[in-house]
Amino acid sequence: MIPKAFKRSLWVFHVNSGSCNGCDIEIVAALTPRYDVERFGIKLVGSPRHADVIAFTGPVTKDMEEKVKRVIAQAPEPKVIVVVGACGIGGGVFHESYHLSGPIDKLIPDAKFFYVPGCPPRPEAIIQAFAKAWEYLEEVEKK
Amino acid sequence: MAHEYELSIGPIHPALKEPIMIRVKVEGEEIVDVDVIASQNHRGIEWLGMNRNNAIQSIYLAERVCGICNFCHPSCLVMAVEEIADIEVPERAQYIRVIQGELERIHSHLLWAGVAAHELGFDTLLHYVWMVREKVMDVLELVNGNRVTKSIIMYGGVRRDIKEEHVEHIRKMLDYYRNAFSKLAKFFLEDKTMEKRTREIGILTERDAIELAAVGPTARASGIKKDVRQDFPYFAYPDFDIHAITPDELTGYTVGDVYDRIVVRLLEVKQSIDIIEEALNEMPSGEIIAEKKLVKLMAKIKASEGEAVARYEAPRGEDIHYVKLKKGFEPLYSWKVRAPTYINILSWRPMLVGYQIADIPIIAASIDPCMSCTNRIAVVKDGKERIFTSDYFHELSVKKTRRLMK
Fold first, then answer.
1. For A131, B129, B219, B322, which has the most beta carbons within 10 A of its beta carbon?
2. Interface A-B: count of C-beta contacts within 8 A
3. Where are the alpha helices (DSSP H) in A1-143?
4. Domain count, chain B
5. Is residue B261 part of a domain?
6. B108 contacts in A (CB within 8 Å)?
7. Residue B123 at interface with chain A, using a CB cutoff of 8 Å
8. What's the first-to-final CA gap in chain A, in angstroms?
9. What are the residue boundaries of the structural domains of chain A, listed by start?
10. What confidence score (pLDDT) does residue B214 get?
11. Which residues, at least 6 apart from B90, have a Cβ–Cβ distance to it below 8 Å?
12. Distances in Å between the alpha carbon of A113 and those of A105, A122, B242?
């Protein structure tokens, strides 16, 4: 898989929609030397318009709903949303809160999602999700 | 004549890891006014905590107030409940709690140092610091079974012991950090670029810090000697000789700028190393939890009544939890969290005004803000928003004092 994958590098935009930071620091840990996803060409970028993948954390609070939708709409197609952490997938420990409008897959039903369960997931699991996103995007490209 | 412009930064912005909105008024490059708009991260944790099935479940919720300081929030809650329910914590458990707390401080301060380097555009240093940080993450994983949220604390003690085979690894880690410290100090304190970007930038005077009630490293960097571990020791901290660290210990004088905040945090990492070492040497043997049977523990909490306030020196400053328990009521009857950033965020204004737009990221990062701890919601009643002024609160306070005097 890796030699093929080197043909393209994924650019990632990180969106925090109200998570507890646990997943966010694990995403940064995945980028830094121990796990070092940059060796695969995976890189954090500063604008959703440059991104292939949105790394998404948090259960989407009501305040963030519109903003998150707007940011994700700005990313060019084909795009993939990697949802990191249990609260992004189904609300997690915050599931019954009065101030949530998530989870994200309810808000944007037609996007392609990859889920990384865990509270927070390990950096290895996050890397695996990116590898899956990679395979998917390559398949889309072939068609 | 110069024109004033308003810049809105956030809530989603590459320089901010968390959702928060900062509105800055600028005149040319100079910042004239600052406003912070929070609430994007509000999840209603206090309400959730009061609606869980029982008080034990709320511990795991408290851990997720903030994923970075995931030991201090549950500790603070647990201390408050222990005070109400009158639970005696075994000595060994208190020592383990101290070690856990200090391990968390090391990881949190290193994390911050990396982020600060990133905000200055010094990404090499970010990567170096985060590589160094992985050592403490390894120890956390070894001792607790998870890297970030550890679920280690329980009413009346801790859930996992620090075993003999762990001690050896922890000692190795301490040696590693002692060696890494001089290198880190060289990068952060002696590097010319670092000094130019942080010296005399974002000054918070001692007076401002006192008036805005700043806490933690932000207050200490302005020369205020306050630290809950020193002033109101909890856990096994009375056994240790802890003093509040101010930057003049290293540099000889206090300015209260970003550089001083770096100095304080670096020295605190060193202090944490010493505390862990001492705790490992002095750790008594014995039980690690007062009540092993959870059903019995739950019954005890259900039968207690009262209220308590607990204070904890989190890596970012003083954390306060208020808890009220009611007899026959299984979950927490009332729970209020006051996280350190909630207070420290106020100091952004005096720090930012008068400096340049380019200094915003590093000044904002210098208080080590934690939005997920901070966000509150405004009360909107009958579709009308009410703004509570300090005069209104003062009036309320005066009324209450009069009521109590009767």
1. B219
2. 120
3. 2-5, 22-31, 65-74, 86-90, 104-107, 123-142
4. 1
5. yes
6. none
7. no
8. 18
9. 10-136
10. 92
11. B157, B286, B287, B288, B289, B290
12. 8, 19, 49
Instruction: Please give, rounded to a whole number of angstroms, the shortest distance from the CA of B76 to a CA of chain A.
Output: 17
Say what the pLDDT of residue B120 is. Answer: 85
Q: How far apart are CA A120 and CA B358, in angstroms?
A: 33
User: Domain A10-136's class?
Assistant: alpha beta
| ipTM rounded to 2 decimals | 0.89
CB contact under 8 A, A18 and B64: no
- What's CA B18's distance to the chain center, in Å? 16
The B residues from 7 to 46 touching A (CB cutoff 8 Å) are 11-12, 14, 17-19, 39-45
Could you list the residue range(s) of the whole structural domain that residue B283 is in? 45-336
Interface of B with A in 134-193 (CB under 8 A): 134, 137, 147-149
Share of chain A above pLDDT 70, in %: 94
Check CB contact of B70 with chain A, cutoff 8 Å. Answer: yes
> Is B150 inside a domain boundary?
yes
Residues B1-29: b if buried by 16+ CB within 10 A, e if exposed = eeeeeeeebbbbbeebbbbbbbebebeee
User: Is the backbone of residue A36 left (phi > 0), alpha (psi -120 to 50) or beta?
Assistant: left
Confidence of residue A1 (pLDDT cuts 50, 70, 90): very low
Decide if B323 is inside a domain: yes
